[in-house]
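Hey, can you fold this one?
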Amino acid sequence: MDSDRIKPWEELTIQDDYIFKRVMRHKRICKKLLEKILRIRIRAIRYLENEKSLKSTYGSKGIRLDVYVADDKNTVYNIEMQLKKPAGDGLYRRTRYYQAMIDIDLLAAGADYDTLNPVIIIFICPFALFDGQRHLYTFRNYCAEDQSLELGDGTTKIFLSTRGLLDDIPPDVKAFLDYVDGIPSEDDFVQEIETTIQKLKTKESERVSYMTLEMKMKEERKEGRKEGLEEGQKKGRSETLREVIRNLMKTMNLSAEEAMNMISLSPEQQKEIAPLI
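Sure. Predicted structure:
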């Protein structure tokens, strides 16, 4: 499939990034989803910022969070719809990075190390995970020597798989995961989500917003590929020059400077290549 193809507005489902984020902007739905997954009661939630961009001050890779909320007890939740499974352990290591960036954001907002908010990261995945058996996998930090001893660092990672085989989740959560996988359901919560999506799709402003966003992202991807190609070509030319210089040095018994002068490299080019010879 063409990665630059813009999916028609009419074909979007809860799996699609734009729809998932817009649906989760409904506090009632977002709160209900958290309550069903975690089997807890939440009095209220507040949006720290939807699709929040986090980037550390150290020039590292930034991330965009699908849903970033906190409840009335200041527990922070990040919910992600993950459509593709990265190779190897990429998906699981991604939660480690998300956790780090969220902690940096909380510290920047004034939190103290000793009072960092509890953070729960939830990945919803329409593919099998780990052993392929469960729908729900919850991870916390425990002592390797004594599994009854929890570290207590306030971090939890939850993976939900639509492809689980065991009867390990409540019917309402199973209905939601089936819905994510495209299976209709009469479940009240699922019907509430579906009604919200259908209403969303009747709004021309939403369709225009979606198309505008997708076109922008398409252009960004093209620009990224162009920059990557140019960088690759630059590296290729540099490697070729270095190989020519090495051959001249070997066959004609020249110094690096003499070899570079022989092929008329500018002082700037010589300064750049010399340390790599």
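The chain has two domains: 9-202, 237-276. Let me know if you want another pass with a different chain boundary.
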